[in-house]
Amino acid sequence: MTDVRTAPRWWQPLGRALLRAVPAALWTAVDSGRPPWRPRRRRWDVALLAVTFFYGVVVIGTASGTDEAVRLTSGLYLLCAAPVAVGLVVAVRRPLDGWRLSLLGLVLTAYVLTPPPAPAPVLEGWQWLLWCPVLLATAWASSRPVAAGVAVVSLALLVVLGVTSPWPVELARSLPISAVGVLAPLVVGASLGARRDARRELEAEQARTARAQAERGALAERARIAREMHDVVAHHLSLIAVRCETAPYRLAPLDPRAGTELAEVGGTARSALTELQRLLGVLRAEDQGPERAPQPGAADLGALFDGARAAGVDLEVDVGVDVADLALPDTLGLSVFRIVQQALSNAAQHSPGAPVRVSVTRAGGVLRVEVVNGPGTAPGSPGAGTGVTGMRERAELHGGRLDAGPARDGGYRVLAEVPLEVARP
Known about the structure:
Order of helices and strands: HHHHHHHHHHEHEEHEEH
Protein backbone atom coordinates (compact mmCIF):
# COMPACT_ATOMS: atom_id res chain seq x y z
CA MET A 1 0.00 0.00 0.00
CA THR A 2 1.42 3.39 -0.99
CA ASP A 3 2.16 5.80 1.82
CA VAL A 4 0.13 8.97 1.40
CA ARG A 5 3.03 11.04 2.71
CA THR A 6 5.39 9.69 0.04
CA ALA A 7 2.90 9.75 -2.84
CA PRO A 8 3.89 12.28 -5.53
CA ARG A 9 1.70 15.36 -5.71
CA TRP A 10 0.17 16.40 -9.03
CA TRP A 11 2.44 19.40 -9.29
CA GLN A 12 5.65 17.39 -9.02
CA PRO A 13 5.57 15.77 -12.49
CA LEU A 14 4.26 19.04 -13.88
CA GLY A 15 7.18 20.89 -12.35
CA ARG A 16 9.68 18.40 -13.73
CA ALA A 17 8.13 18.72 -17.19
CA LEU A 18 8.37 22.51 -17.05
CA LEU A 19 11.99 22.33 -15.89
CA ARG A 20 12.75 20.36 -19.05
CA ALA A 21 10.53 22.46 -21.34
CA VAL A 22 11.71 25.95 -20.37
CA PRO A 23 15.43 25.35 -21.06
CA ALA A 24 14.53 23.67 -24.35
CA ALA A 25 12.52 26.73 -25.36
CA LEU A 26 15.18 29.25 -24.30
CA TRP A 27 18.51 27.94 -25.53
CA THR A 28 18.37 24.36 -26.80
CA ALA A 29 18.79 24.09 -30.58
CA VAL A 30 15.65 22.07 -31.33
CA ASP A 31 14.83 23.61 -34.71
CA SER A 32 15.22 20.73 -37.15
CA GLY A 33 13.67 19.70 -40.39
CA ARG A 34 11.48 21.75 -42.67
CA PRO A 35 8.60 23.74 -41.12
CA PRO A 36 5.25 22.42 -42.37
CA TRP A 37 4.18 25.68 -44.02
CA ARG A 38 7.25 26.12 -46.20
CA PRO A 39 6.71 25.27 -49.90
CA ARG A 40 8.99 22.80 -51.64
CA ARG A 41 9.82 25.03 -54.59
CA ARG A 42 12.59 27.52 -53.95
CA ARG A 43 10.93 30.45 -55.68
CA TRP A 44 7.79 30.11 -53.58
CA ASP A 45 9.95 29.83 -50.49
CA VAL A 46 11.70 33.09 -51.38
CA ALA A 47 8.32 34.67 -52.10
CA LEU A 48 7.10 33.67 -48.63
CA LEU A 49 10.12 35.33 -47.04
CA ALA A 50 9.53 38.48 -49.10
CA VAL A 51 5.86 38.65 -48.11
CA THR A 52 6.75 38.22 -44.42
CA PHE A 53 9.38 40.94 -44.63
CA PHE A 54 6.92 43.26 -46.37
CA TYR A 55 4.34 42.57 -43.67
CA GLY A 56 6.82 43.51 -40.92
CA VAL A 57 7.76 46.74 -42.73
CA VAL A 58 4.09 47.69 -43.13
CA VAL A 59 3.33 47.05 -39.44
CA ILE A 60 6.29 49.11 -38.23
CA GLY A 61 5.61 51.87 -40.75
CA THR A 62 1.96 52.04 -39.75
CA ALA A 63 2.83 52.19 -36.06
CA SER A 64 5.25 55.06 -36.66
CA GLY A 65 2.47 57.07 -38.29
CA THR A 66 0.00 56.95 -35.38
CA ASP A 67 -0.77 59.63 -32.83
CA GLU A 68 2.19 58.44 -30.79
CA ALA A 69 4.57 59.15 -33.66
CA VAL A 70 6.62 61.52 -31.50
CA ARG A 71 7.45 58.66 -29.14
CA LEU A 72 7.67 55.91 -31.72
CA THR A 73 9.83 57.81 -34.18
CA SER A 74 12.51 58.55 -31.66
CA GLY A 75 16.04 57.62 -32.56
CA LEU A 76 15.89 54.23 -30.82
CA TYR A 77 12.53 53.14 -32.22
CA LEU A 78 13.77 51.31 -35.30
CA LEU A 79 16.66 49.81 -33.35
CA CYS A 80 14.30 48.43 -30.69
CA ALA A 81 11.58 47.31 -33.09
CA ALA A 82 14.00 45.62 -35.50
CA PRO A 83 14.44 42.38 -33.45
CA VAL A 84 10.67 41.85 -33.34
CA ALA A 85 10.33 42.32 -37.10
CA VAL A 86 13.45 40.29 -37.86
CA GLY A 87 12.18 37.55 -35.54
CA LEU A 88 9.04 37.33 -37.68
CA VAL A 89 11.13 36.83 -40.82
CA VAL A 90 13.46 34.32 -39.14
CA ALA A 91 10.43 32.35 -37.87
CA VAL A 92 9.58 31.43 -41.46
CA ARG A 93 12.53 29.03 -41.49
CA ARG A 94 13.55 28.70 -37.83
CA PRO A 95 10.47 29.39 -35.67
CA LEU A 96 12.10 28.96 -32.27
CA ASP A 97 14.98 31.31 -33.07
CA GLY A 98 12.48 33.84 -34.41
CA TRP A 99 10.55 33.67 -31.14
CA ARG A 100 13.75 34.31 -29.15
CA LEU A 101 14.55 37.37 -31.25
CA SER A 102 11.01 38.62 -30.71
CA LEU A 103 11.44 38.31 -26.95
CA LEU A 104 14.59 40.43 -27.14
CA GLY A 105 12.79 43.08 -29.15
CA LEU A 106 9.84 43.20 -26.73
CA VAL A 107 12.16 43.71 -23.77
CA LEU A 108 14.03 46.51 -25.58
CA THR A 109 10.86 48.36 -26.54
CA ALA A 110 9.58 48.11 -22.98
CA TYR A 111 12.60 49.61 -21.24
CA VAL A 112 14.23 51.84 -23.86
CA LEU A 113 11.43 53.69 -25.64
CA THR A 114 9.98 56.89 -24.24
CA PRO A 115 7.01 56.16 -21.93
CA PRO A 116 3.55 57.00 -23.29
CA PRO A 117 1.66 59.94 -21.77
CA ALA A 118 -1.18 57.78 -20.43
CA PRO A 119 -1.60 54.25 -19.02
CA ALA A 120 -1.00 51.67 -21.74
CA PRO A 121 -1.35 47.90 -22.09
CA VAL A 122 1.60 45.59 -21.49
CA LEU A 123 2.12 45.25 -25.23
CA GLU A 124 0.90 47.63 -27.87
CA GLY A 125 -1.04 46.70 -30.97
CA TRP A 126 1.88 46.74 -33.41
CA GLN A 127 3.81 44.40 -31.09
CA TRP A 128 0.93 41.92 -31.07
CA LEU A 129 0.72 42.05 -34.86
CA LEU A 130 4.36 40.97 -35.08
CA TRP A 131 4.44 38.57 -32.13
CA CYS A 132 1.26 36.51 -32.64
CA PRO A 133 2.38 35.03 -36.00
CA VAL A 134 5.68 34.07 -34.37
CA LEU A 135 3.89 32.31 -31.50
CA LEU A 136 1.63 30.48 -33.96
CA ALA A 137 4.58 29.31 -36.08
CA THR A 138 6.63 28.25 -33.04
CA ALA A 139 3.87 26.10 -31.56
CA TRP A 140 3.06 24.66 -34.98
CA ALA A 141 6.60 23.53 -35.75
CA SER A 142 7.80 22.54 -32.25
CA SER A 143 7.13 19.54 -30.09
CA ARG A 144 4.64 19.68 -27.25
CA PRO A 145 7.26 20.11 -24.46
CA VAL A 146 8.90 22.97 -26.35
CA ALA A 147 5.52 24.60 -27.04
CA ALA A 148 4.75 24.36 -23.30
CA GLY A 149 8.08 26.03 -22.52
CA VAL A 150 7.32 28.79 -25.01
CA ALA A 151 3.95 29.38 -23.33
CA VAL A 152 5.46 29.55 -19.84
CA VAL A 153 8.25 31.91 -20.83
CA SER A 154 5.90 34.16 -22.85
CA LEU A 155 3.39 34.44 -20.00
CA ALA A 156 6.20 35.09 -17.52
CA LEU A 157 7.53 37.83 -19.76
CA LEU A 158 4.11 39.50 -19.82
CA VAL A 159 3.93 39.47 -16.02
CA VAL A 160 7.46 40.83 -15.66
CA LEU A 161 6.86 43.58 -18.20
CA GLY A 162 3.56 44.50 -16.58
CA VAL A 163 5.03 44.73 -13.09
CA THR A 164 8.37 46.38 -13.92
CA SER A 165 7.29 48.59 -16.82
CA PRO A 166 8.70 52.16 -16.57
CA TRP A 167 5.29 53.60 -17.60
CA PRO A 168 1.84 53.09 -16.05
CA VAL A 169 0.23 49.79 -17.09
CA GLU A 170 -3.41 48.79 -16.59
CA LEU A 171 -2.61 45.44 -15.00
CA ALA A 172 -6.18 44.48 -14.05
CA ARG A 173 -7.41 44.75 -17.63
CA SER A 174 -4.24 44.27 -19.64
CA LEU A 175 -2.78 41.08 -18.19
CA PRO A 176 -5.82 38.77 -18.71
CA ILE A 177 -6.31 40.02 -22.26
CA SER A 178 -2.59 39.69 -22.96
CA ALA A 179 -2.59 36.13 -21.59
CA VAL A 180 -5.40 35.24 -23.99
CA GLY A 181 -3.45 36.89 -26.80
CA VAL A 182 -0.46 34.64 -26.04
CA LEU A 183 -2.33 31.40 -25.43
CA ALA A 184 -4.70 31.63 -28.41
CA PRO A 185 -2.02 31.42 -31.16
CA LEU A 186 -0.10 28.85 -29.14
CA VAL A 187 -3.17 26.61 -28.82
CA VAL A 188 -3.99 26.97 -32.51
CA GLY A 189 -0.38 26.25 -33.48
CA ALA A 190 -0.16 23.26 -31.15
CA SER A 191 -3.39 21.89 -32.65
CA LEU A 192 -1.99 22.25 -36.16
CA GLY A 193 1.24 20.57 -35.03
CA ALA A 194 -0.67 17.69 -33.43
CA ARG A 195 -2.64 17.28 -36.65
CA ARG A 196 0.60 17.25 -38.64
CA ASP A 197 2.15 14.63 -36.33
CA ALA A 198 -0.97 12.48 -36.52
CA ARG A 199 -0.94 12.67 -40.31
CA ARG A 200 2.72 11.68 -40.41
CA GLU A 201 2.11 8.75 -38.09
CA LEU A 202 -0.85 7.69 -40.22
CA GLU A 203 1.20 7.87 -43.41
CA ALA A 204 4.02 5.90 -41.79
CA GLU A 205 1.55 3.28 -40.54
CA GLN A 206 -0.06 3.06 -43.98
CA ALA A 207 3.37 2.60 -45.55
CA ARG A 208 4.22 -0.17 -43.06
CA THR A 209 0.85 -1.81 -43.70
CA ALA A 210 1.35 -1.62 -47.46
CA ARG A 211 4.81 -3.19 -47.15
CA ALA A 212 3.45 -5.92 -44.88
CA GLN A 213 0.61 -6.63 -47.30
CA ALA A 214 3.02 -6.74 -50.21
CA GLU A 215 5.28 -9.15 -48.34
CA ARG A 216 2.34 -11.35 -47.35
CA GLY A 217 1.06 -11.23 -50.90
CA ALA A 218 4.46 -12.21 -52.25
CA LEU A 219 4.71 -15.11 -49.81
CA ALA A 220 1.17 -16.25 -50.59
CA GLU A 221 1.79 -16.05 -54.33
CA ARG A 222 5.08 -17.92 -54.01
CA ALA A 223 3.29 -20.59 -52.03
CA ARG A 224 0.64 -20.82 -54.73
CA ILE A 225 3.28 -21.02 -57.46
CA ALA A 226 5.08 -23.72 -55.48
CA ARG A 227 1.85 -25.70 -55.13
CA GLU A 228 1.16 -25.41 -58.84
CA MET A 229 4.71 -26.41 -59.73
CA HIS A 230 4.35 -29.33 -57.36
CA ASP A 231 1.28 -30.48 -59.26
CA VAL A 232 3.05 -30.17 -62.60
CA VAL A 233 6.29 -31.85 -61.47
CA ALA A 234 4.41 -34.56 -59.60
CA HIS A 235 2.46 -35.36 -62.77
CA HIS A 236 5.64 -35.88 -64.79
CA LEU A 237 7.36 -37.86 -62.03
CA SER A 238 4.35 -40.12 -61.76
CA LEU A 239 4.44 -40.75 -65.52
CA ILE A 240 8.13 -41.58 -65.34
CA ALA A 241 7.58 -44.02 -62.48
CA VAL A 242 4.61 -45.70 -64.20
CA ARG A 243 6.42 -46.08 -67.52
CA CYS A 244 9.51 -47.52 -65.85
CA GLU A 245 7.48 -49.99 -63.79
CA THR A 246 5.33 -51.13 -66.73
CA ALA A 247 8.19 -51.33 -69.25
CA PRO A 248 8.98 -55.04 -68.52
CA TYR A 249 5.40 -55.91 -69.37
CA ARG A 250 4.98 -53.58 -72.35
CA LEU A 251 8.38 -54.28 -73.93
CA ALA A 252 8.83 -57.99 -73.06
CA PRO A 253 11.09 -59.78 -73.53
CA LEU A 254 13.47 -57.28 -71.88
CA ASP A 255 17.11 -57.69 -70.96
CA PRO A 256 17.44 -58.36 -67.21
CA ARG A 257 19.96 -55.54 -66.79
CA ALA A 258 17.63 -53.11 -68.59
CA GLY A 259 14.75 -54.25 -66.39
CA THR A 260 16.82 -53.66 -63.28
CA GLU A 261 17.87 -50.23 -64.52
CA LEU A 262 14.28 -49.23 -65.28
CA ALA A 263 13.15 -50.50 -61.88
CA GLU A 264 15.81 -48.35 -60.20
CA VAL A 265 14.77 -45.32 -62.25
CA GLY A 266 11.14 -45.92 -61.33
CA GLY A 267 12.05 -46.26 -57.67
CA THR A 268 14.07 -43.06 -57.77
CA ALA A 269 11.12 -41.23 -59.35
CA ARG A 270 8.81 -42.57 -56.64
CA SER A 271 11.26 -41.44 -53.93
CA ALA A 272 11.58 -38.00 -55.49
CA LEU A 273 7.80 -37.71 -55.66
CA THR A 274 7.49 -38.69 -51.99
CA GLU A 275 10.13 -36.15 -50.92
CA LEU A 276 8.48 -33.46 -53.02
CA GLN A 277 5.11 -34.12 -51.45
CA ARG A 278 6.64 -34.11 -47.96
CA LEU A 279 8.54 -30.88 -48.62
CA LEU A 280 5.54 -28.98 -49.98
CA GLY A 281 2.96 -30.57 -47.73
CA VAL A 282 3.08 -27.61 -45.35
CA LEU A 283 1.92 -25.36 -48.16
CA ARG A 284 -1.24 -27.39 -48.53
CA ALA A 285 -1.90 -27.40 -44.79
CA GLU A 286 -3.72 -24.07 -45.03
CA ASP A 287 -5.72 -25.00 -48.14
CA GLN A 288 -9.48 -25.40 -47.84
CA GLY A 289 -9.17 -28.67 -49.70
CA PRO A 290 -7.13 -30.48 -52.33
CA GLU A 291 -7.13 -29.08 -55.85
CA ARG A 292 -8.40 -31.92 -57.98
CA ALA A 293 -8.92 -30.04 -61.25
CA PRO A 294 -6.01 -30.03 -63.71
CA GLN A 295 -3.96 -26.84 -63.77
CA PRO A 296 -4.80 -24.49 -66.65
CA GLY A 297 -2.29 -23.53 -69.32
CA ALA A 298 -1.85 -21.22 -72.29
CA ALA A 299 -4.25 -23.36 -74.32
CA ASP A 300 -7.02 -22.42 -71.88
CA LEU A 301 -6.77 -18.68 -72.61
CA GLY A 302 -9.70 -18.90 -75.01
CA ALA A 303 -11.98 -20.20 -72.28
CA LEU A 304 -10.71 -17.46 -69.99
CA PHE A 305 -11.57 -14.80 -72.58
CA ASP A 306 -15.04 -16.28 -73.11
CA GLY A 307 -15.68 -16.21 -69.38
CA ALA A 308 -14.58 -12.57 -69.14
CA ARG A 309 -16.92 -11.58 -71.99
CA ALA A 310 -19.76 -13.49 -70.37
CA ALA A 311 -19.12 -11.46 -67.19
CA GLY A 312 -19.67 -8.22 -69.15
CA VAL A 313 -16.06 -7.22 -69.86
CA ASP A 314 -15.59 -5.26 -73.10
CA LEU A 315 -12.67 -7.42 -74.21
CA GLU A 316 -10.57 -7.17 -77.35
CA VAL A 317 -8.12 -10.04 -77.96
CA ASP A 318 -5.14 -9.91 -80.28
CA VAL A 319 -3.28 -13.22 -80.24
CA GLY A 320 -0.60 -12.86 -82.88
CA VAL A 321 0.87 -16.31 -82.32
CA ASP A 322 -0.51 -19.81 -82.04
CA VAL A 323 0.30 -20.72 -78.46
CA ALA A 324 -0.06 -24.42 -79.22
CA ASP A 325 2.75 -24.23 -81.79
CA LEU A 326 5.16 -22.82 -79.21
CA ALA A 327 5.10 -26.05 -77.16
CA LEU A 328 5.31 -24.10 -73.92
CA PRO A 329 6.30 -26.00 -70.80
CA ASP A 330 3.47 -26.59 -68.40
CA THR A 331 4.90 -24.20 -65.81
CA LEU A 332 5.27 -21.37 -68.33
CA GLY A 333 1.81 -21.97 -69.79
CA LEU A 334 0.37 -21.88 -66.28
CA SER A 335 2.20 -18.60 -65.51
CA VAL A 336 0.96 -16.98 -68.74
CA PHE A 337 -2.59 -18.03 -67.92
CA ARG A 338 -2.35 -16.70 -64.34
CA ILE A 339 -0.86 -13.36 -65.44
CA VAL A 340 -3.66 -12.75 -67.94
CA GLN A 341 -6.23 -13.94 -65.42
CA GLN A 342 -4.95 -11.61 -62.69
CA ALA A 343 -4.71 -8.64 -65.06
CA LEU A 344 -8.31 -9.15 -66.17
CA SER A 345 -9.42 -9.45 -62.54
CA ASN A 346 -7.61 -6.22 -61.64
CA ALA A 347 -9.24 -4.40 -64.57
CA ALA A 348 -12.70 -5.57 -63.53
CA GLN A 349 -12.10 -4.67 -59.87
CA HIS A 350 -10.38 -1.30 -60.18
CA SER A 351 -11.86 -0.03 -63.49
CA PRO A 352 -15.39 -1.42 -63.85
CA GLY A 353 -16.84 -0.98 -67.33
CA ALA A 354 -13.50 -0.13 -68.92
CA PRO A 355 -12.55 -1.67 -72.29
CA VAL A 356 -9.74 -4.20 -72.03
CA ARG A 357 -7.29 -5.23 -74.73
CA VAL A 358 -5.20 -8.42 -74.45
CA SER A 359 -2.26 -9.00 -76.74
CA VAL A 360 -0.11 -12.16 -76.89
CA THR A 361 2.74 -11.92 -79.40
CA ARG A 362 6.18 -13.29 -80.02
CA ALA A 363 9.15 -11.01 -80.71
CA GLY A 364 12.19 -13.13 -81.54
CA GLY A 365 12.75 -15.47 -78.61
CA VAL A 366 10.51 -13.54 -76.21
CA LEU A 367 6.86 -14.17 -75.47
CA ARG A 368 5.12 -10.81 -74.92
CA VAL A 369 1.84 -10.63 -72.99
CA GLU A 370 0.16 -7.22 -72.68
CA VAL A 371 -3.12 -6.36 -70.96
CA VAL A 372 -4.31 -2.74 -71.17
CA ASN A 373 -7.55 -1.33 -69.79
CA GLY A 374 -8.97 2.16 -70.12
CA PRO A 375 -10.44 4.34 -67.36
CA GLY A 376 -13.44 2.84 -65.61
CA THR A 377 -16.97 4.12 -65.99
CA ALA A 378 -17.76 3.49 -62.31
CA PRO A 379 -15.79 3.76 -59.05
CA GLY A 380 -13.62 0.72 -58.43
CA SER A 381 -12.97 -1.09 -55.20
CA PRO A 382 -9.54 -1.04 -53.53
CA GLY A 383 -7.47 -4.18 -53.42
CA ALA A 384 -4.77 -5.59 -51.18
CA GLY A 385 -2.00 -4.70 -53.62
CA THR A 386 -0.79 -8.29 -54.02
CA GLY A 387 -1.94 -8.95 -57.59
CA VAL A 388 0.92 -7.12 -59.31
CA THR A 389 3.39 -8.70 -56.91
CA GLY A 390 2.15 -12.16 -57.84
CA MET A 391 2.32 -11.46 -61.57
CA ARG A 392 5.85 -10.14 -61.22
CA GLU A 393 6.85 -13.25 -59.26
CA ARG A 394 5.54 -15.48 -62.03
CA ALA A 395 7.36 -13.56 -64.76
CA GLU A 396 10.65 -13.55 -62.87
CA LEU A 397 10.27 -17.26 -62.18
CA HIS A 398 10.98 -17.87 -65.89
CA GLY A 399 13.73 -15.27 -66.23
CA GLY A 400 11.39 -12.58 -67.55
CA ARG A 401 10.13 -9.24 -66.32
CA LEU A 402 6.83 -7.49 -65.74
CA ASP A 403 5.99 -3.78 -65.97
CA ALA A 404 2.73 -2.50 -64.50
CA GLY A 405 1.57 1.08 -64.12
CA PRO A 406 -0.93 3.74 -65.16
CA ALA A 407 -1.51 4.27 -68.88
CA ARG A 408 -1.60 7.66 -70.58
CA ASP A 409 -5.37 7.68 -70.99
CA GLY A 410 -5.98 7.13 -67.29
CA GLY A 411 -6.23 3.34 -67.45
CA TYR A 412 -3.71 0.66 -66.51
CA ARG A 413 -1.16 -1.38 -68.45
CA VAL A 414 0.45 -4.72 -67.63
CA LEU A 415 3.30 -5.99 -69.82
CA ALA A 416 5.04 -9.32 -69.22
CA GLU A 417 7.99 -10.52 -71.31
CA VAL A 418 9.36 -14.04 -70.88
CA PRO A 419 12.27 -15.53 -72.88
CA LEU A 420 11.16 -18.71 -74.57
CA GLU A 421 14.68 -20.13 -74.69
CA VAL A 422 14.99 -20.06 -70.94
CA ALA A 423 11.51 -21.48 -70.53
CA ARG A 424 12.03 -24.51 -72.77
CA PRO A 425 12.63 -27.82 -70.99
